[in-house]
Amino acid sequence: MNKKNILIIGSGGREHALATFLSKNKTIDKIYTAPGNAGTPGNISYNAGNTKDFETLADFAQAKEISLTVVGPEIPLCNGIVDVFDARGLSIFGPSQKAAFVTEGDKASARNFMRNYGIPQPDFEVFNNLILAKDYLNSLPEQRIVVKASGLAAGKGVYVCENLNEAVKAAEEIMEQRIFGSSGNKIVIEDCMDGEEASILAVCDGQRAVYLASSQDHKRVFDGDKGLNTGGMGAYAPAPVVIDELLKNVDDNIVKKTLEGMADEGMPYKGCLYVGLMIKDGEPKVVEYNCRFGDPEIQAVLALLKTDLYELLKASADGNLDQIQVENYDKAACCVVLASDGYPGKYETGKIISGLDKADKMDNTYVFHAGTEKEGSGKTITAGGRVMNVVGIGDTIKDAIKTAYKGTEAIDFDNKYLRNDIGYRALKKR
Question: Which residue positions in the chain have pLDDT lower than 50?
């Protein structure tokens, strides 16, 4: 048997989940994670903001005869890691720098791309001048409005404003107070869409797309979808709102148009195209694109995947998705995020985490590390805002939710915080 080595880029729960499910392929020998966390295998040093490290990672991939590199987060994708690996003939899962920039690196570019190719989305305007942005907001009738930092902001640069005063304040925080730095050089002002959200993860090879299970993220920090936006406090899969007819609509009118447009503009899209949707009366509109797997959506989605993950990602990288059929188990999954109290604002780290062994042994449960590291004595401590992901699997979404929350009870650390209502919309549909 020809053994394979894998390199995963990233440090969160998404990357731990990728490592866990890739390891189920019996032909895989070693998995390395750069930089990884306390739960991931084969951690190696890596600075996501230093593009020179891409060459070092490519050297590592060549030296270790890496069969496939899988890029988790958006920053290395938007900084061009795929281009570096492609230039050396190294197999890598993810879009090129240009494609990543258009889909996620710049929200204004994504909106203009959708407009050019007739992809359904809300009405919007883009501004790089605060005075002009405020003048525009003050010209609108009183309404809910969405204000976004155009650049990368780790999922936190989106304000859903209940009135125009809130929208003006959001624009000032982004463009004047610079709370997201240079990511706030431009802002996108959008109509606030009503309906139900869902996440579609399309694995693409430049020409074709296949779909993982649908899911629904919970972005707001507090129960009932209240409070600030976060990187995601939990998710469940599949999302009942995504029926077969709706997915066909998304395939025909969003994903295929996106792939055709990307190819026409000389940037064929490979990797995961994340399509965030708002669905009203059975009609989907695009909330956002992402150039990578959603976190925490992928943790729940991979728990349902029956198709071999390595074969799927390798086919994407090699342009061979016509040889792959995605199959899922007929079950449901729920992912609950354990966070540090205060996230997404200020929070403390360095808290000792207990109960991991107990949670790991629970039936139908996965525990993925996110913001964790090992201290000198070998104990696992908190090292981020989102600390752990607990995934429960069940025959029904109710069972999956119950299993996930049972797992969260086994894990403890000072200042532990979690939402208590992950999956509540799915329960309402039962």
Answer: none
Provide the pairing of β-strand 380-382 with 372-374: antiparallel
Q: What is the pLDDT of residue 295?
A: 97
pTM as predicted? 0.95
* Cα atoms in the 13 Å half-sphere on the side-chain side of 297: 26
Q: What token pair was written down for 336? A: 């609950």
Residue type, 336: V
Q: Beta strands 28-35 and 283-290: pairing type?
A: unpaired
CA angle 288, 294, 298 (to 5 degrees): 145
Q: In what order do the strands lie in the sheet with 158-161?
A: 124-127, 187-191, 145-149, 158-161
> Closest by alpha carbon to 370, among 426, 421, 416, 317?
416
Whether residue 146 contacts residue 139, with contact meaning beta carbons closer than 8 Å, is answered with no
Three-point CA angle 383, 154, 312, nearest 5°? 95
Can you give the residue ranges of every domain in the chain?
Answer: 4-97, 129-185
From 303, 413, 374, select the one nearest 43 (Cα to Cα). Answer: 374
- By DSSP bridging, strand 66-71 and strand 4-10 are parallel
Token pair of 429, please? 């549909």
Tens of pLDDT, residues 150-191: 999 877 789 999 999 999 999 999 999 999 999 999 999 999
For residue 55, how many other CB atoms are within 10 A of its CB?
14
Q: How far apart are CA 345 and CA 163, in angstroms?
A: 23
Strand partners, 197: 278
**232 to 72, 101, 268, 413: CA distances (angstroms):** 15, 22, 29, 20
**Residue 357: burial class (beta carbons within 10 Å; 0-12, 13-18, 19+):** exposed
Q: What is the mean pLDDT of the chain?
A: 96
**What CATH number should be reported for the domain whose range is 4-97?**
3.40.50.20
Q: How far is the C-alpha of 355 from the C-alpha of 236, rounded, in Å? A: 23
Give the architecture-level CATH label for domain 129-185.
2-Layer Sandwich (3.30)
Give me the amino acid identity at 185: N
Burial class for 74, CB neighbours closer than 10 Å (0-12, 13-18, 19+): buried
